Task: inverse folding
């Protein structure tokens, strides 16, 4: 089982869109895939058609991965909004994750919850776990980086976004440098997102990003990507022939 964190502390760079498309592409390939929504905003959960905080999820959400008395296996729900059988699952988020973060911060052993949960998921034959990280560098993101085999960094190709790449790379380096954190963590690569090939500043930023790390693929700006927010279906399913879907399918082959 491979655990991949989709991380960047910058908001709105397509972490969630990337998570859903890559996870769905892998599930379509026939892999058994789990997505964990680590963001209290619950965008990924909403994108799959599940309402964060609804009653049936109480006791069965990301919040419960931070409670050692709970069995992580109980928190994985099958994603029903796309036509696959027993391939794509999600641990939904809960608005209370924000409070959980404060509580986890107060603990001594606070960085191993997601790693421990992933060890349980490995027993259920998952091939991939995708961790959709929130836009910060807090303790939940540290938990994700400690659990991850690899990190994918989506970066919007505008000026302010690309400048944030160094910050997330520093955080990954800190986790790698600490034997008790995750010395084996690797950066799988960067995905420039919402790219506009006709804009000079986008082209300039793409060439800077190429020097900062391996480019896994370039995802153009397109309504095919954002439509999924409403429809509950990622571009790789709703518009498989779109440029966005093709880019995500090609990236999925690399991971
Ligand atoms: N290739 C694309 N073209 C156009 N719009 C896109 C593309 N990818 C993502 N978007 C849109 O950009 C917005 C931000 O995307 P997304 O929610 O995936 O980012 P995020 O990094 O997860 O945000 P947050 O930091 O809030 O978690 C969404 O409305 C999404 O639909
Ligand atoms: Mg997000």
Result:
């Amino acid at each position: 089982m491979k655990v991949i964190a989709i991380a960047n502390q910058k908001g709105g760079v397509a972490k969630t869109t990337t998570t859903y498309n890559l996870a769905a592409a892998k599930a379509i390939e026939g892999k058994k895939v789990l997505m964990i929504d680590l963001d209290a905003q619950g965008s990924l959960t909403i994108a799959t058609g599940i309402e964060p905080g609804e009653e049936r999820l109480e006791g069965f959400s990301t919040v419960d991965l931070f409670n050692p008395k709970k069995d992580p296996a109980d928190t994985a729900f099958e994603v029903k909004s796309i036509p696959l059988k027993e391939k794509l699952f999600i641990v939904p988020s809960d608005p209370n994750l924000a409070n959980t973060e404060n509580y986890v911060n107060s603990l001594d052993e606070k960085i191993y919850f997601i790693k421990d949960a992933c060890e349980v998921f490995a027993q259920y034959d998952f091939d991939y776990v995708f961790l959709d990280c929130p836009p910060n560098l807090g303790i939940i993101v540290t938990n994700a980086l400690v659990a991850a085999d690899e990190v994918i960094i989506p970066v919007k190709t505008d000026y302010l976004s690309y400048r944030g790449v160094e910050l997330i790379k520093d955080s990954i380096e800190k986790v790698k440098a600490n034997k008790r954190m995750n010395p084996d963590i690797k950066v799988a690569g960067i995905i420039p997102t919402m790219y506009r090939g006709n804009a000079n500043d986008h082209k300039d930023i793409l060439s800077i990003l190429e020097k900062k790390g391996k480019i896994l693929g370039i995802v153009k700006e397109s309504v095919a990507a954002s439509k999924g927010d409403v429809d509950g279906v990622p571009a790789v399913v709703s518009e498989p022939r779109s440029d966005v879907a093709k880019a995500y399918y090609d990236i999925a082959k690399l991971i």
